[in-house]
Amino acid sequence: MKPEAFTRPTQNYNTLSDKYGKQIEHWNGVDVSVSARLDNGLVLQGGVSTGKRTTDNCEIVAKLPEMLFADNTLVPANGPTINLGDTNANVWLPGQWCHQEEPFLTQTKLFSTYLIPRIDVRVSGTFQSFIGNSLGQGTGLIAANYVVTNPILASSSTLGRPLSGGAANMTVNIVQPGSLYIERLNQLDFRIGKVFKYARTRTSVNLDIYNALNADTVRQVNFSYAVFERPTGILLARFAKIGVTFDF
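Given the sequence above, the corresponding structure tokens read:
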């Protein structure tokens, strides 16, 4: 948008979407779950979920290039470069890639419990494995946000002028969407409990151990370009908790 046109009233033009092209978003995957209760009292439950998402709006972008600016990105993947100034190196400032295809993202969850006869001791545990949380979405996606100032934009072949509306800078993601994820989380939790029975009252004294393997998986990272991928949160260290449950 030209600076002098920035304050003009918006005039919306509504028409059929097929005049601009096709836009798709679909997910391919499979979910499998198993549940078993054996004669000896052992209970097993588990499941695996895997799949990937694909989006494509290339036909629309071909007719409406301004769609590349929809999520604060500058140019398509094969577009011009811009010098970041503080690195003395030209890097891509990728636009909204019109075709994005995630890798298969797989998560696994297992649960088991068993009551040891005669001594009435219950042993149980859970195991989960999935792409760690990031962006608050549970997807583990990583972005690299760089703040591009007006002098850099004005001198680049990407924009070649100051930002409209008097904006001093613009934040752009310089990592292709869906290409980077934080490390996988593998967590084992364990419980052992003694059951006491008095007439119609049932009491259970439990020892819970969280993160039994004491994993130090990174859960969140910094997306700022200057401190890219610096950890901002990790899985809590192994810890134990004692609890009592009364049933009457």
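The longest helix spans residues 58-63. Try to locate this feature in the token string yourself.
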